[in-house]
Automatic annotation (TrEMBL):
Pfam families: CobD_Cbib. It comes from the Bacteria. The keyword Transmembrane helix applies. Belongs to the CobD/CbiB family. This is Cobalamin biosynthesis protein CobD. GO terms for biological process: cobalamin biosynthetic process. Converts cobyric acid to cobinamide by the addition of aminopropanol on the F carboxylic group. It is found in: Cell membrane. GO terms for cellular component: plasma membrane. Pathway: Cofactor biosynthesis; adenosylcobalamin biosynthesis.
Length: 308
């Protein structure tokens, strides 16, 4: 599997050049499958919801992973590389993430608050209808930093570790968590297994992402925020990523926000400096630099391995 050291940079290159498929993304089809399974299997009895949720996850994920592994193992090496690179491209959201961030930045730089609220609402689940520039900047940066881990560095990690089967296992599990991993009456038990699987698969990638943010930003502030603030966040993986990213950018993230009509008080992360719209581009640069760094390291490791 050492060829995956080269596959990951190739997948990043494909994403950089092509972006997401414009007509049909396979994850859209998977989303329809997930919705169908949830409608069929999510029973009202809380005692059985957990078991049905485990079954639903297995039916949605395991067959596709096994098919991918079978196809990959039946290919010659050069086709395995291309196959894995295409899967990596479909799983990575680097270019798409930056495009969403740029859209918010452009609107705010033109003082178009109404458009900025709309663009920000595309990438966050909180209410942005009355948000000011600071709140919109903060929301966008938080989304960029967290999705830098979920949509870029975590897929790369599993692509390198397990090739095409690994990256599809991660991406499908992460997609199901986004659909089922809610603390509400409908998904509290049905989505619990899915949420725990996503937590486990993101544990190491989130910390690698935080390390990259630390190296590429204000290292001292980033490591301090990681050490003192990450554990205060309600998500163990998102907390590490966002606290470290806030410290790396030397800005303040977290604080109160409106979700589904209710104020939610969140811990403050980073420093005391409130972000402005210019910090959105700084966050995108932080992510870019992390991508360039990890791609360089992987290529270097691959060259060393095959040279010696």
């Amino acid at each position: 599997m050492m060829y995956c050291l080269f596959v990951a940079p190739l997948a990043l290159l494909l994403d950089f050049l092509l972006g997401e498929p414009s007509r049909f993304h396979p994850l859209i089809g998977f989303g329809h499958l997930a919705n169908w399974l949830e409608q069929k299997l999510n029973r009202k009895n809380a005692g059985s919801q957990l078991l049905w949720g485990i079954l639903a996850w297995g039916l949605a994920v395991i067959p596709l992973v096994l098919i991918t592994a079978f196809i990959s193992n039946s290919l010659d090496l050069i086709f395995q590389i291309l196959f894995a690179a295409i899967y990596g491209w479909l799983a990575i959201g680097w270019k798409s993430l930056l495009q969403h961030g740029q859209a918010v930045f452009d609107a705010l730089s033109q003082n178009d608050l109404a458009q900025a609220r709309i663009k920000t609402s595309y990438i966050v689940s909180r209410d942005t209808s009355e948000s000011d520039e600071t709140a919109l900047s903060k929301a966008s940066i938080e989304s960029l930093l967290e999705n830098g881990s979920d949509a870029i560095f975590a897929p790369l990690f599993w692509l390198v570790i397990l090739g095409a089967p690994g990256v599809i296992l991660y991406r499908l599990s992460n997609t199901l968590d986004a659909m089922w991993g809610y603390h509400n009456e409908r998904f509290e038990y049905f989505g619990k297994f899915t949420a725990r699987i996503d937590d486990v698969m993101n544990y190491i990638p989130a910390r690698l992402c935080a390390l990259l943010y630390s190296i590429c930003g204000d290292t001292k502030q980033a490591l301090h925020a990681w050490k003192t603030q990450a554990s205060s966040w309600y998500s163990p993986n998102a907390g590490v990523v966002m606290a470290t990213g806030a410290g790396a950018l030397n800005i303040s993230l977290g604080g109160s926000a409106i979700y589904h009509g209710h104020y939610k008080e969140r811990p403050t992360l980073g420093t005391a400096t409130e972000p402005s719209f210019t910090d959105i581009q700084r966050a995108m640069s932080l992510i870019d630099n992390g991508v360039y760094l990890i791609a360089t390291v992987l290529v270097f490791m691959g060259v060393l391995y095959y040279a010696f």
